[in-house]
Amino acid sequence: MSDPLLSIGRIAGSGMEAQLLRMRIASENIANARSTGATPGADPYRRKTVEFASELDRALGFTGVSVRSIGVDRATAFEVEHDPGNPAADQNGDVKLPNVNVLVEMADLRDAGRSYSANLQMMKQARSMISMTLDLLRGG
């Protein structure tokens, strides 16, 4: 079994990587919130999702976070807007809009940022504890 203080850093690091990916996916969704299809009647950008899983590393003795999958949201329907002047409009003048809710993505982005900060704080605390332990061992 590895050192518990080092395991803390590995766990927090895996959490930080997971939250960075979550922020990237949410940002990509926000950036494409108004991206329509390339041809008339074509499907627009579809919201991406990320799914995480716990991953046990028996050799190192800790459980971290890993990405299970990056998928697309097929459960939420596209919005349809009547805009006959849009190049992506079908023969009825309707345009399919992405299934991205910017408010949901912003909340997810904020939540991921807070989780990232919490993991970073955990790493700082572990580093501080290691430093204090070394100082005690040195006799100072």
Automatic annotation (TrEMBL):
<dbReference type="Pfam" id="PF00460">
    <property type="entry name" value="Flg_bb_rod"/>
</dbReference>
<feature type="domain" description="Flagellar basal body rod protein N-terminal">
    <location>
        <begin position="10"/>
        <end position="38"/>
    </location>
</feature>
<dbReference type="InterPro" id="IPR001444">
    <property type="entry name" value="Flag_bb_rod_N"/>
</dbReference>
<keyword id="KW-0975">Bacterial flagellum</keyword>
<dbReference type="Pfam" id="PF06429">
    <property type="entry name" value="Flg_bbr_C"/>
</dbReference>
<keyword id="KW-0966">Cell projection</keyword>
<protein>
    <recommendedName>
        <fullName>Flagellar basal-body rod protein FlgC</fullName>
    </recommendedName>
</protein>
<dbReference type="InterPro" id="IPR019776">
    <property type="entry name" value="Flagellar_basal_body_rod_CS"/>
</dbReference>
<dbReference type="GO" id="GO:0071978">
    <property type="term" value="P:bacterial-type flagellum-dependent swarming motility"/>
</dbReference>
<keyword id="KW-0282">Flagellum</keyword>
<comment type="similarity">
    <text>Belongs to the flagella basal body rod proteins family.</text>
</comment>
<dbReference type="GO" id="GO:0030694">
    <property type="term" value="C:bacterial-type flagellum basal body, rod"/>
</dbReference>
<keyword id="KW-0969">Cilium</keyword>
<dbReference type="InterPro" id="IPR010930">
    <property type="entry name" value="Flg_bb/hook_C_dom"/>
</dbReference>
<dbReference type="InterPro" id="IPR006299">
    <property type="entry name" value="FlgC"/>
</dbReference>
<feature type="domain" description="Flagellar basal-body/hook protein C-terminal">
    <location>
        <begin position="96"/>
        <end position="136"/>
    </location>
</feature>
<comment type="subunit">
    <text>The basal body constitutes a major portion of the flagellar organelle and consists of four rings (L,P,S, and M) mounted on a central rod. The rod consists of about 26 subunits of FlgG in the distal portion, and FlgB, FlgC and FlgF are thought to build up the proximal portion of the rod with about 6 subunits each.</text>
</comment>
